[in-house]
Structure formats: structure tokens, C-alpha cells
Design a protein that fits this description.
By secondary structure, this protein is of the alpha/beta class. Helices cover about 55% and strands about 20% of the residues. The chain contains 7 helices and 6 strands. The N and C termini lie far apart (about 30 Å).
């Protein structure tokens, strides 16, 4: 899907959630969408297909709590556009971030570093309480 078709209004930033971000509301009681609105105002959210796949795997193979969180995460993001990529996992997230000039919400330290090295904007959980920009 073309970035301008996702954005509609080109003044709104695009935000990509990775798997750890989708699980934040259930693992840390974070108001994910409220915090994103606080940081960015209005925005467009997109979900890489790799995140959907990972959540489905966690739902099938995870322990009780992990499987429940994954199921709830899939419900949380079900109404948002899904973008596909030729690359799996983190590579697909990085590719989408570069293609859409998007913010990436992640709590994965390694992914945060890789995104920073590529010049991508990152949002992460601080003090297990709220989202903030990675500087």
C-alpha cells in the first residue's frame, strides 16, 4: 500500500507497532493509543504482517498468560492496516519504517539500536509507565 494512501492527510505521522509494542497494554498496563496521541497528536497506525504472524505464533505456542496477551493484542490491532514485506521479523519492520518514514514503537533494545543506526524515529516504554521518544 502506498504511503499517501495510508496517510490520506500527509501531515499526520505514520506509526508502526512491533510485537513488543502491541503487548505493552497487557504486560505493563500502558495506554498505548493515549500515549501515542499525547506524543504525536493525530497519527496513522500500520502493522507489519510479520507482527501479525508473531502474535499468532505466540497465541498458539505461548504459555497461558503469553497466549492470552497475544490473543488480546490481535484484537487490539485488528482494525488497523497491515503492510506486507518480503523480509521477516525485525527486517520487515525496519524496511517498513524506512519506506513510510514512520515512527516505530518498540521495547526491543536491539531493534531500537538498529532503527537508530538507520536514522528512524523510535518510541519506547520508559520506566514501565509511559511512552517517550528515543533520543
Amino acid at each position: 500500500m502506498a504511503p499517501d494512501r495510508i496517510r490520506g492527510d500527509t501531515t499526520q505521522p505514520i506509526v508502526i507497532l512491533d510485537t513488543s509494542a502491541v503487548l505493552l497494554p497487557f504486560e505493563h498496563s500502558v495506554d498505548l493509543f493515549g500515549d501515542l496521541t499525547r506524543l504525536l497528536g493525530s497519527y496513522h497506525l500500520i502493522i507489519p504482517h510479520a507482527v501479525i504472524n508473531e502474535l499468532q505464533q505466540l497465541q498458539k505456542r505461548g504459555n497461558g498468560k503469553t497466549a492470552q496477551h497475544a490473543k488480546a493484542g490481535l484484537l487490539l490491532i485488528k482494525d488497523h492496516p497491515v503492510v506486507s514485506s518480503d523480509k521477516p521479523g525485525d527486517e520487515g519492520i525496519i524496511e517498513a519504517a524506512l519506506n513510510y518514514h514512520a515512527y516505530v514503537v518498540t521495547n526491543d533494545k536491539e531493534l531500537r539500536q538498529r532503527l537508530r543506526n538507520k536514522g528512524c524515529s523510535v518510541i519506547y516504554l520508559r520506566q514501565k509507565q509511559y511512552l517517550t521518544f528515543d533520543e
